[in-house]
């Protein structure tokens, strides 16, 4: 069952705007997963400081009966579904852009609901972050073409933050960085070197950032969440306009489609992507509602006990 749960989480993780954490919450394993991830990050931190005894102790705290099959299921989902998604991005860029647009909008709505403090400071942070992100992404003419191994390393280190940051997915971060197509292609083409460097970056990034991000969320949760919402809102520019799609690279990596223009699509081309956007948003919001209901039921049961 944990293998199946991991497969569903992996399927969600390769789609921008959908978080595997939401799937974990719906399946009732979110708290156990986060606890094991934190133990693993702390083990890496101890290992960096050459505290082998401390690292060994943290490793033993990881719930491997849960984590090992979850990782296997995530890997199977990425390997089997990435080629299909890569094909859809190349053949139907407008429809996929509409789909992703709906997913990200739904993620913004969910994150906004999580923001309990909505004062002038947080709203200001949200608006400022959205404006700066929107403006900066205007300089990105498309995804990174022929990225170096250092780019894969950096993408892995940054994207891993999605494991411990609420309201944003790793694939969405890759999309913002212009590395989504490159990473997807590396999976499809079985580029072991690029994937290994990406994984090393993710592991190191988790070890370095988990403590700092955990402290920020514990002490400035509302401000951080407001910035994340603004980040997602401003980053919708990478999905616009639909005629240009999300910005993809051809198999030979010599054709780059601009994903940050602001032209309005032709009337006849808008209805298909718009319908997919609405369906995607409704699906994510429905999934979130189910997850909240399941969490509320568990809390009520715990209180009753």
Give the structural class: mainly alpha
How many separate helices? Answer: 13
Distance N to C terminus:
27 Å
- Integer tally of domains: 1
- Helix-strand string: HHHHHHHHHHHHH
- Please state the average pLDDT score: 78
Let me know the largest β-sheet. Answer: none
Per DSSP, what share of the residues sits in E-state strands of 2 or more residues? under 5%
Low confidence ranges = 248-257
Total E-strand runs: 0
Helix content: over 70%
Shape: globular
| Gyration radius over CA | 19 Å
List the helices and strands and how they pair.
Blueprint: H1 2-13, H2 20-26, H3 30-48, H4 52-61, H5 64-91, H6 93-114, H7 120-137, H8 149-159, H9 170-177, H10 180-188, H11 192-219, H12 221-234, H13 271-304
Helix pairs in contact: 1-2, 1-5, 2-13, 3-4, 3-11, 5-6, 5-10, 6-12, 6-13, 7-12, 8-9, 8-11, 11-12
Question: What descriptors fit this protein?
Answer:
single chain; 72% helix; mainly alpha; 0% strand
Question: Could you give a quick summary of the protein structure above?
Answer:
With about 300 residues, the protein is mostly helical. Helix content is about 70%, strand content about 0%. The chain contains 13 helices and no strands.
């Amino acid at each position: 069952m944990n293998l199946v749960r991991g497969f569903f989480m992996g399927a969600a993780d390769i789609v921008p705007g959908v978080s595997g954490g939401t799937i974990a919450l719906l399946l009732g394993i979110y708290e156990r997963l986060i606890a094991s991830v934190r133990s693993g990050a702390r083990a890496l931190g101890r290992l960096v400081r050459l505290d082998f005894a401390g690292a060994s102790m943290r490793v033993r705290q990881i719930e491997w009966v849960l984590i090992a099959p979850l990782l296997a299921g995530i890997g199977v989902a990425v390997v089997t579904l990435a080629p299909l998604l890569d094909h859809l991005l190349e053949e139907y860029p407008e429809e996929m852009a509409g789909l992703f647009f709906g997913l990200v909008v739904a993620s913004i709505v969910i994150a906004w609901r999580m923001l309990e403090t909505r004062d002038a400071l947080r709203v200001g942070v949200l608006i400022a972050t959205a404006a700066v992100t929107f403006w900066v992404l205007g300089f990105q003419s498309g995804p990174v073409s022929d990225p170096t191994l250092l780019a894969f390393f950096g993408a892995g280190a940054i994207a891993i933050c999605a494991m411990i940051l609420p309201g944003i997915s790793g694939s969405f971060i890759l999309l913002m960085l212009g590395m989504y197509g490159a990473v997807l292609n590396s999976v499809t083409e079985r580029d072991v070197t690029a994937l290994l460097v990406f994984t090393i970056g993710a592991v190191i990034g988790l070890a370095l950032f988990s403590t700092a991000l955990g402290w920020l969320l514990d002490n400035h949760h509302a401000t951080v969440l407001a910035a994340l919402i603004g980040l997602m809102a401003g980053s919708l520019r990478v999905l616009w306009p639909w005629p240009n799609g999300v910005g993809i690279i051809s198999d030979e990596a010599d054709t780059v489609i601009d994903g940050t223009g602001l032209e309005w699509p032709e009337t006849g081309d808008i209805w298909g992507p718009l319908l997919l956007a609405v369906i995607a948003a409704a699906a994510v919001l429905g999934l979130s509602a189910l997850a909240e209901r399941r969490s509320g039921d568990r809390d009520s049961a715990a209180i009753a006990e």
